[in-house]
Fold this protein.
Amino acid sequence: MPKALSEVALLFLRLGTTAFGGPAAHIAMMEDEVVTRRGWVSRDEFLDLVGATNLIPGPNSTELAIHLGYRRAGWLGLIVAGLCFILPAAAIVTLIAWAYVRFGTLPAADALMSGVKPVVIAIVLLALWRLARTAIKTPLLGVIAAACIAGLLLGLQELALLAGAGVMMALTKLRRTPTGAWLPLGVLAPAAAATATAFTLGHLFLTFLKIGSVLFGSGYVLLAFLRADFVERLHWISETQLADAVAVGQVTPGPLFTTATFIGYVLGGVPGAAVATLAIFLPAFVFVAISGPLIPWLRTNAAAGAFLDGVNVASLALMAVVTYQLGRVSIIDLPTILIAVAAAFALRFKVGSVWLVLAGAVVGVVLGQLVPGWG
């Protein structure tokens, strides 16, 4: 194996095994490794790549790893960096999913997850607050965010809201929006009534491929898409199982998108985990490979920038609604309220999210031993 390719493989295997804390933490660790320690790219080049990952759908930190692999070792580096960053996390999540399927109904396991879920809600709420302060730049964007929240609560399609918000902002920038215009009429079509659908690996692949192909924003927006597809439309998992999947994604290293690995295993065992992981991450490789020549234009074109502003605030609306839905099944009594409040307080003092999740797990197990019926 060429030296550059082996360097890429070893670095991203290590990061995929130890990079806790979500996309922002992953990006900071990559900057330290490839700019400060190794000098693979300059800081300006690194910032350009970070910006590029925010302009395409998919998991930002995974796409950044793929970009860096390509810069260091060409097309093989692109593939190797992505795989080495994803596979350790996917393997860990698969093992946890196996234990969950086998032991998840035991009181101890239920108690553990009941302690973790309120912590996850606190982490997502803090991320939502920070992102909103950055994304809602104008009163119009604030109005669009509020309208998207209302639309989601009324049952409108989440993809249509994302597209509608982006198109409206782009038209506003181009000065082509008629006075009083609002989201495109297609956005106003309510979601069709959902009925249970038989599970197949092919359907699982296509569903996760769609999500990986259209998901803009932070990894937390994934939760809204998972709920819309797997809970409401297909009826393959419950709200509680979704909350459990999110908690596992938080406590493990690597991309939050390995939540898909967990869901795939719960639904279809090891084949399901493999299919779900492949499907949700495959678009990231494709988008990174083809987006390079488009990046300069997207960064300087006013309409494209405005479109992404609209998509971002719609994504925040999705995050807000899904956090509310998960909170209803996770924060249900005084102990879970106190755990969520304590986690939020600790987050204000920069305590790492992974430590908080682990602490929530310990508290949950202890309460399971001390409080009858806990979990």
Q: What stands out?
A: The radius of gyration is 21 Å.
